[in-house]
Every structure is written in structure tokens, then in C-alpha cells.
Amino acid sequence: MGSRFEESILVSIRRMTRAIDLHSRQLAKQHELTGPQLVCLRQIHREEETSPTKLARTVSLSQATVTGILDRLERDGLVRRERSARDKRKVLLSLTDKGLKLVRAAPSPLSEEFRSRLASLPEGEQAMIDWILRRVVEMMEAGDFDASPLMSTGPATAQAGDIADFLEHDPAAQDDVDAAE
């Protein structure tokens, strides 16, 4: 038999997943950008020089998922892929002016309410929460885990129109977005 806390932990993880899911839907509806797309854009912005492989590793998404996201972001004129001047085999990523503008204007991939509550905690408690969540991930053996299902309700490479259609044709999804607003 497992720990007496198993069920409670599972419920908490499900509630966190749902909260992330609701915020991702709002983000998609309001900014025509999925959570994974925003996370990738923000990471490219942070790095002076990054490759698709390094990006995938940094944001805990599979290489295939990141490739799809980059395809969409490049088509939308937000990201540029260029060969490295030092090593022509290497592809480097950068934001376009449009991508930079979007990153600066877009909200956090986490809800403002959560960010505010987290920021109000003493730094030691914030560090403890970070440590505990990292331990949970390690315990779930999520090192090679593709996090996109936790950050998005649909395909990580969805177009804005696909997201709008999803919200329009899924009454439960729209109810979730309305309830969260």
C-alpha cells in the first residue's frame, strides 16, 4: 500500500494542471498564443544564442513539439532561424522585431493572481515551493517528460483560428474560460 497522502497529492496535481489549463486557454483566446509558444518565445528572448535542441531541453518539451512550435512562430513572423556563422551545421534562433514586441507585451504564462500570491510570500517559502515542485517532478521521473500537455489544452502548434474554433465548439472549454475571467 502506498503513502496515506497519495490521493491528496494526486488531487492537488490535478487542480494545478486544471489551473494551468484554464490560464492557457485564456492566453490563447486573448493573445492568440498558446502557453508553450509563449514559453518558447520568452526563452529565446532570454538567451543570447540558442538552438532548437537547447530550447527543447530548457523548456522541457520534446524536440518534435518544439519543431512544430518554431514552424508556427516562424510562419507568424515572430521567430527567425539562421545558420550559425561559426558552424554552418548549427541553426540558431532569434526573435524578430514583431516577436520581441509580442514578448514584451504578453502576460506571464502563469496567472497574475498566482504570481501576485507567490511574490507576497517570503523568499524562503518561494524557494521551498520551488524545491518541492522540482522534487515532485524528479519523483515522477519527468526528466524527459514533454510538458506541453500541462501547458496547453490542444496542439502546441495550433493556429489562433484553431484555438478560437476549439473554444467556440467546446462548450465546456468556453465555460472554463468564462469562469476563470
What is the CATH superfamily classification?
Winged helix-like DNA-binding domain superfamily/Winged helix DNA-binding domain
Assign the CATH topology. Arc Repressor Mutant, subunit A
CATH class: Mainly Alpha
Radius of gyration over C-alpha positions, nearest whole angstrom = 18 Å
Query: Which sequence of strands runs across the widest sheet?
Result: 1-2
CATH architectural arrangement: Orthogonal Bundle
How many β-strand stretches? 2
**Count of DSSP H/I helices:** 10
Structural class: mainly alpha
Distance between the termini: 41 Å
* Shape field: globular
The parts where pLDDT drops under 50 for at least 5 residues are 149-156, 171-181
* Major β-sheet annotation: 2 strands, antiparallel
**Number of domain units:** 1
Order of helices and strands: HHHHEEHHHHHH
Beta-strand percent range: 5-15%
Report the helical percentage.
55-70%
Give the overall pLDDT as a whole number. 82
Q: Layout of helices and strands, plus pairs?
A:
Layout: H1 6-31, H2 35-46, H3 52-59, H4 63-75, E1 79-83, E2 91-95, H5 97-105, H6 112-120, H7 123-139, H8 148-151, H9 160-169, H10 171-180
What does this entry show, briefly?
This protein has ten helices and two strands. The chain has helices at 6-31, 35-46, 52-59, 63-75, 97-105, 112-120, 123-139, 148-151, 160-169, 171-180, and strands spanning 79-83, 91-95. The chain has a two-stranded antiparallel sheet.
